[in-house]
Design a protein that fits this description.
Radius of gyration: 22 Å
Helix content: 40-55%
Number of strands: 8
Structural class: alpha/beta
Strand order of the largest sheet: 2-1-8-7-3-4-5-6
Largest sheet: 8 strands, mixed
Distance between the termini: 60 Å
Length: 348
């Protein structure tokens, strides 16, 4: 299933909210799922000015880095993050291996199958479940378990595999950027190892271009003496909020030229991106389609949520920053035209 939603620009040349429609097949349109409007024009113009060698905003190929949040930006994140669904599904196997956890919270609540009770679990309780189900095994075993789960698990509402619940418009943006020499990265608060299992097949992004929250690992040997990496319950990188630009610096080593997100957890990544010199594109996804996916904010009066929060303050900041950026770029363009006229006159 390909869902649709609205987007609002943050610190781009223009600001606008556009609704996405069904896909058309015009070969000349690099973003066929997007309505014509400010957001689409900003992306197309950005690619044009950063890849034209004659443009004053030209970006050398080696510096063409674009980063994408995943949950809520590339695929559906409601009613809960997909990785948490994986963790919940792993609890029965964990309890079978460790029966003493059967009557211990929060494992007891998950084993009950009571969706309302599970939805009320606190963040520390969810973290406890995640650590217990994502560690204590080899990296190879973990990858095999995730592949197996992805091949069989289906979203409770859409009854489709999670890897099919991606946003077609964002898939088009990634393809468009890659077609113009950009290297696309996923920068996610989700588990790095988890996303790496399916990122290449689902998004065309190889594992080495996934930056996520990372747990510790330990080198050792299995019972047959084969070298293995074991996942340990130690947090190395919390790749959310300020952790995103920190992770970008550690794992990529270049400031992105373009960045895409959908919540307060992405704000620092977008700020970090637009703080660089030259042309920059930072965008936020605002979800407002309850029928074709989910509507949540609470910006613009949309329902509040604990997942993928997009508050009104972030919406207002996006509009203000976009306007300031647009005015700044207008001044730069005017100065460029004046210099070009003077140079032309001097040559005469």
């Amino acid at each position: 299933m390909k869902t649709t939603y609205k987007q609002i620009l943050l610190a781009a040349a223009l600001v606008g909210v556009v609704a996405f429609t069904s896909i058309n097949t015009h070969a000349q349109d690099p973003l066929p799922s997007w309505n014509d409007g400010a957001a689409k024009s900003a992306i197309v113009n950005f690619v044009k000015v950063t890849t034209d060698a004659a443009s004053p905003q030209f970006v050398p190929p080696a510096e063409r880095i674009a980063t994408f949040d995943q949950d809520g930006t590339l695929w559906v994140e409601h009613p809960v993050y997909s990785q948490l669904m994986y963790c919940f599904d792993r609890v029965p196997a964990l309890v079978a291996a460790k029966p003493e956890l059967k009557n211990v919270e929060p494992f007891k609540t998950v084993m009950s199958g009571d969706r309302e009770a599970i939805a009320k679990l606190t963040l520390p309780e969810l973290e406890k479940i995640a650590v217990a189900t994502l560690t204590g095994m080899s990296a190879d075993q973990f990858q095999a378990e995730v592949k197996k789960w992805l091949a069989t698990a289906k979203d409770p509402r859409w009854k489709r595999p999670y890897t099919e619940l991606t946003y077609q418009p964002m898939q088009e943006v990634m393809s468009y950027l890659r077609g113009n020499g950009y290297k696309t990265y996923i920068v996610t608060g989700g588990g790095q190892d988890f996303v790496r299992v399916y990122s290449e097949q689902t998004y065309g992004i190889p594992p080495e271009q996934v930056v996520g929250s990372a747990l510790g690992t330990k080198y050792g040997y299995d019972k047959d003496g084969k070298p293995i990496i074991t996942k340990e319950p130690k947090l190395l990188l919390n790749d959310d909020n300020a952790g995103k630009p920190e992770g970008i610096h550690l794992m990529i080593g270049r400031r992105p030229v373009a960045a895409f997100g959908n919540s307060t957890g992405d704000q620092q990544m977008l700020e970090y991106t637009k703080a660089g010199e030259g042309a920059r594109l930072s965008m936020l996804v605002l979800h407002d389609d309850q029928t074709r996916e989910y509507a949540y904010g609470p910006a613009q009066g949309l329902p509040n949520t604990k997942v993928g929060i997009f508050p009104q303050a972030l919406y207002d900041k996006a509009q203000k920053d976009a306007l300031d950026r647009h005015q700044h770029e207008e001044r730069l363009e005017a100065n460029f035209r004046v210099r070009h006229q003077v140079n032309s006159y001097a040559r005469l």
